[in-house]
Amino acid sequence: MALLHHLNKTKSLSSVLLPLTSTHTHSRRLSSDSTKTLTIETSVPFKSHIVEPPSRSVDTTPAELMTYFRDMALMRRMEIASDSLYKAKLIRGFCHLYDGQEAVAVGMEAAITKKDNIITAYRDHCIYLARGGSLLSAFAELMGRQDGCSRGKGGSMHFYKKDSGFYGGHGIVGAQVPLGVGLAFAQKYNKEDCVSFALYGDGAANQGQLFEALNMAALWDLPAILVCENNHYGMGTAEWRAAKSPSYYKRGDYVPGLKVDGMDVLAVKQACKFAKEYVLKNGPIILEMDTYRYHGHSMSDPGSTYRTRDEISGIRQERDPIERVRKLLLAHDIAGEKELKDIEKEIRKEVDEAIAKAKESPMPDTSELFTNIYVKGYGVESFGADRKVLRTTLP
Ligand SMILES: Cc1ncc(C[n+]2csc(CCOP(=O)(O)OP(=O)(O)O)c2C)c(N)n1
Ligand SMILES: [Mg+2]
């Protein structure tokens, strides 16, 4: 019981998606000392810009490591399944996958609460899951169904979960950063002791609006954490072709920054914890997460024309975020190979069941075409059987 309680406290996605039961074999080995503190060094030291970096030694527990393993493996499976659903034409339109980058979503979530905000771009499925979204509502949204988190009207790029501080899901490169700074402004204005994370890519990092928003955040000491997920490519363009300085953690000039191994979930957690404390006292910070996407930019990009297969397989072998945690679990004798494989099997089943349920969800009603577009009471409404009669109400 104590273990189950602890695992729930460590915010496993499994507590949302699959009740922890005695069939979870890993609980047997964990039960003795699942909450004892383990101190683990980050893969590489943090690099910093005008700020003293946090310690490389990260405190964790066996239970927490198991949770990270499970959560990242679940995200990976969801993305691989989405790839298949896309190829089967059950997901249409844009679809950008996050496999490879899972440690950023999981490590960030481990350091914050649901009162803190996150806003991101279009590579949003796994952040949604980390914020407590269910697999069913994720797959239903991907397939444009009523049970989706945006009622099937947003699709892959527009996942939201406002009740746990997730503000989407945005398709215009960089545009979420000023919105994220606005969220931080609201938090400060309302005297909430919380912070906002605005995620953007290395491609977006060269945009003007980012610097304008950062200026305001610094000027007004807003609790804004700008997280550059540097996966080293913006569509098919390598960072060195697009950025004069690819040291994104230094690009805030007068705003401090940290460079973090974004493939190391413990490093991400440590950096986000540090950043949260820092911005509540001092105003904004930039976290550059050094990460990698295994898939192409989107489902229409095979991802192999502008980078070599050796590069991709090299990262998988050397830096994969799930394999890193698997090795830690084995090295500290927290779980055995078979237990971890069994967890992965359970996850497969869980994902398949969610997909089957999502397929049963109906498509949105045509009347939904005219909802969630304008603020209620304003805008254009249509009437009549053929909806050709329009009435405009302006503020
Ligand atoms: C304002 C704007 N310009 C261009 C695009 C087309 N576009 C979509 S994604 C993308 C690349 C962004 O790369 P990055 O910021 O590194 O994010 P990643 O896809 O690597 O996560 C571009 C140019 C867009 N959606 N919006
Ligand atoms: Mg990128």
From TrEMBL:
Domain Dehydrogenase E1 component: 70-365
InterPro entries: DH_E1, PDH_E1_Alpha_Subunit, Pyrv_DH_E1_asu_subgrp-y, THDP-binding
Enzyme kind, highest EC tier: oxidoreductase
BP GO terms, sorted: pyruvate decarboxylation to acetyl-CoA
Cofactor: thiamine diphosphate
Record EC number: 1.2.4.1
Superkingdom, taxonomy of origin: Eukaryota
Keyword Oxidoreductase part of the UniProt annotation: yes
Keywords: Oxidoreductase, Pyruvate, Thiamine pyrophosphate
Endpoints of the signal sequence: none
GO MF: pyruvate dehydrogenase (acetyl-transferring) activity
Annotated catalysed reactions: N(6)-[(R)-lipoyl]-L-lysyl-[protein] + pyruvate + H(+) = N(6)-[(R)-S(8)-acetyldihydrolipoyl]-L-lysyl-[protein] + CO2
Record text on subunit structure and interactions: Tetramer of 2 alpha and 2 beta subunits.
Biological role stated in the UniProt entry: The pyruvate dehydrogenase complex catalyzes the overall conversion of pyruvate to acetyl-CoA and CO(2). It contains multiple copies of three enzymatic components: pyruvate dehydrogenase (E1), dihydrolipoamide acetyltransferase (E2) and lipoamide dehydrogenase (E3).
Protein name: Pyruvate dehydrogenase E1 component subunit alpha
Organism: Beta vulgaris
